[in-house]
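Researcher: Next sequence.
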Amino acid sequence: MTGLRLEHVTKKFKEFTAVNDVSFEVKDGEFVVVLGASGSGKSTILRLIAGLEVQTSGHVYIGDMEVDDYEPRDRNIAMVFQSYALYPHLTAYNNIAFALRVRRVPRDDDPDRYRRRTREEIDERVRHAAELLGITDTLEKKPAALSGGQRQRVALARAIVRDPEAFLLDEPLSNLDAKIRSSARIELKRLHDQLKQTFVFVTHDQSEAMTLADRLVIVDHGRLLQYDTPERVLRDPASQFVASFVGSPDMVFLEGAVESRAGAASFVLGPVRIPVRGETAPGPVTLGIRPWDVSIGPENAPGGIPAVVRGVERLGSSDQLYLELTAPGAAPAPGVSVRAMGRAYENQVGDSVSVSIDPDHALFFDKDGARVHSLETAPPA
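Model: Next structure:
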C-alpha cells in the first residue's frame, strides 16, 4: 500500500487559477473524498495526481517519491473516469485485460529486462477481479449490452487488475440512477475494505462523500477549505460555506446580531432573543444550527421560543417543519423562520409550538462567513 501527498500545489490555465495552493496527505489504505461544487477544482486535483495535468507550482508525492516529472504511465495510478472510457468494440473481458496485455513487467530471471504477461496470468487476474465485483457472467458481453452499473464495475475491474499504488475515481457513480447509485456506494466501500488500498474519490454529492470517506477534502474555487473526518466537518465546520455545503437537511442560518443588556449578551433576530455566553464585540453575526438540533415542544413549554408551523414536508419516519418564530405574547413575525425535524404526522400547518436550540451544537459566523469560536448559546435562565 502507498499513500500520496500534495504540497502547495497550484494549477493555472492562463489567467484562471483552477487549484490554489492546495496541500493534503492521504495515508496508506485511506479512502479520501474530494468534495466540491462544479468548477471548484476537484477534478483538476485528481488529474494533477494522475499526471494528466502538470501543476504550475508545488509538488506531488506518491509514497515518499516526488513524481512531478513522471509521465502518467509511470506513476502506477489507476483512474476510473465518469464516462468509464470502455472500448465499445471489445468485450468486458478484453476491456479488463487490455492494460495487462500492453503493459510489460520485469522478468523473474532478469529484473532489468521486461516481458509480456502470459495468457494464463492475464486470465487469472481478469477472472479474479470479475469475481470480486460480481460480473463473471458479463465477461463476454460488449459495453452496449451492459447496464450502467455493470459498465461501472467493468471499469473498476480494469483498474483493479493493474494492482496500482492508488485508485483515483472521478465521479464514477454519477451516471447511475438513484437506486443503483445507493447500492453502488456500499459495494465500493466494501471493495475498498477488501483491497485495503488508497482511494481518492471526487464527487459533488455530499451523500456519497459522507458514506464513503475516511476523510473529506472540501474545496471551493480551487482552495482547500477543510480537511477532516466527515463527523468533524459536520459538527465543527471551518466556515459558513462548509457548514452550508455539508449536511442534509441543510443547516439553518439565522442572521441577527449580538446585543448586550445589563451585562448579559443575547443573539437577537426580530422579536426573538436567545441568550449567549462568551466574549465578543456586539454586532452582526449568523447563528447556524442543524434541523435535528432544533427541538419541538408543546405550546408555552418552559424556556422555549414560541413558534407557529408554516409548512410541513413528510419524509416518512420524520417530518421537516418550517417554523415562524415569535416573541412571547406577540403576534407571529413573518421572516424569522427556522427548520426542524419532528415526529411523523405529529404537527400540522398552523399549530402553535415551542422551539429550543441545543446549546452544544449552535454555531456562530461573522459577516465574512468565518467561525466565531468565542460564542455559544446559553441555557435559558
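Model: The CA atoms of residues 22 and 104 lie 34 Å apart. The radius of gyration is 26 Å.
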